[in-house]
Amino acid sequence: IQHKSGGFPSFYDQANLYTFDTAQILHGLLSWYKKSSDVKFLVAAKMAGDFLCSMQVYSGSMFPIYDTKSDTRVVYQNNAKGSDWGSTFSYIQVKNAQALLLLHKVTKIQRFLTASERLGQIKFLNKECRYTHPLAYYLEGMMALGKNRIVRQILDDNIIPTLRSNGFIPYFPGAKYAYVSGSVQLGILLW
């Protein structure tokens, strides 16, 4: 199912390849390569890494979508709900640094390291700490890049004050519900 560009299709629309999803699949390709030594998984991983690099802009961010029908990189100002989930130049793309760092570790190819380091330069605004799940993606990427001081500061300033005595982390300040995967991600980071 890997597209000739190296990206992987979205389950929503087979014509759209998402950089975030491709980076997460890259983890699996590298794991399978390490277990099997089957070079086809390394080739696919390098193609995915090349796709990610081709989607990166000078600021470090990545175009979130590649539209295979129009052969264009796509970004939206925001979606209908005002969210930046997977369709805008977003701080959650920093999570992609983990996959690129792993690919560099396996291949020693410099462009993958350079792309991961550039992701760590994405500007992050304190207002973006509102939702736990996307924030955790950003923090995981920053931790992989060794920016632990920044991670600790954001956790101290924005998450620990919302942490309830029973361990509950609300999805956003004042919410009566949690986003389970975001809470788990943040719990691991707090550990």
Overview features:
191 residues, mainly alpha, three-stranded antiparallel β-sheet
How does this structure look, described?
- This protein is mainly α and 191 residues long.
- The chain is built from 7 helices and 3 strands, in the order βααββααααα.
- The chain has helices at 19-36, 39-54, 96-107, 110-119, 132-144, 148-159, 180-190, and strands spanning 16-18, 65-67, 72-74.
- Strands 1-2-3 form a 3-stranded antiparallel sheet.
- β2 and β3 form a beta hairpin.
- α3 runs antiparallel to α4 (110-119), α3 runs parallel beside α5 and α5 (132-144) packs parallel to α7.
- The mean pLDDT is 90.
Average pLDDT rating: 90
Protein structure class:
mainly alpha
Instruction: Provide the spatial order of strands within the biggest beta sheet.
Output: 1-2-3
Gap between N and C termini, in Å?
A: 37 Å
List low-confidence stretches.
none
Report the sheet with the most strands, covering strand number, pairing sense and barrel closure.
Answer: 3 strands, antiparallel
Strand content: under 5%
- Please write the string of helix (H) and strand (E) elements: EHHEEHHHHH
